[in-house]
Amino acid sequence: MTATTSDHSSSPSKADLRRRALAARDATTPAHREAAARAIAATDALPILPAGTVVAGYFPIRSEIDPRPLMRRLVACGALTALPAVGADGETLTFRLWREGEALVAAGFGLSEPSAEAEAVDPDVVLLPLSAFDRRGERIGYGKGHYDRAIERLEAIRPLLKVGLAFAAQEVARVPSEPHDRPLDLILTEAGAIVPLAT
Fold first, then answer.
1. What kind and span of H or E run contains 75?
2. Cα–Cα separations (whole angstroms), residue 156 to 61, 151, 153
3. Percent of the chain, pLDDT > 90?
4. How many CA atoms lie within 13 A of 74 on its CB side?
5. Residue 97: burial class (beta carbons within 10 Å; 0-12, 13-18, 19+)
6. How far is Cα 19 from Cα 31, in angstroms, rounded to an integer?
7. All domains of the chain in start order, with CATH
8. What is the DSSP string of 15-64?
9. Residue 37 bridge partners (DSSP)
10. Does the reported pTM lie above 0.70?
11. 64 and 142 in contact (C-beta within 8 Å)?
């Protein structure tokens, strides 16, 4: 079941889709959120990552699905983890190494970030929070474009595995895509993994 229909005669805007999907996400219970985080951590859909692979996750805010159980599992397999940090310009998103238990600092948008002394890195894998997604791998973020700009920069350097993390209730029939949007390679939900369909 999706948060919208596929009626293209009155296709909802990104803002409408974001609002509906976030309402569905907010409606999930704490118990469901905890179970969902465990479910995505147990997935076998991710490729085997070589030791030393840098995986950028995020520290969850509001009702976001919690990536930390998955990050713990990847660390146990030899990955290094990083968290995003918003630059002083409020636009640029970079990534800094972080190990669970290390102190975080409060930042804009309600984020918790590694300190400025933490090593900056270019991740090989990015776990992305999102508002809504479709089965083509298109995503709706929070409207600021931070991840789109960061992914464009990273993909200019080398291939990047982009993995969206969401509750199944955040799926919509179709996300209106724009030239600057960066489609996901994989979506993980508590209902299973979704490999985006070719367009």
1. helix 68-76
2. 29, 8, 5
3. 76
4. 31
5. middle
6. 23
7. 8-45+52-194 (3.40.50.10420)
8. HHHHHHHHHHHHTS-HHHHHHHHHHHHT-S-SPPPPTT-EEE-----TTP
9. none
10. yes
11. no
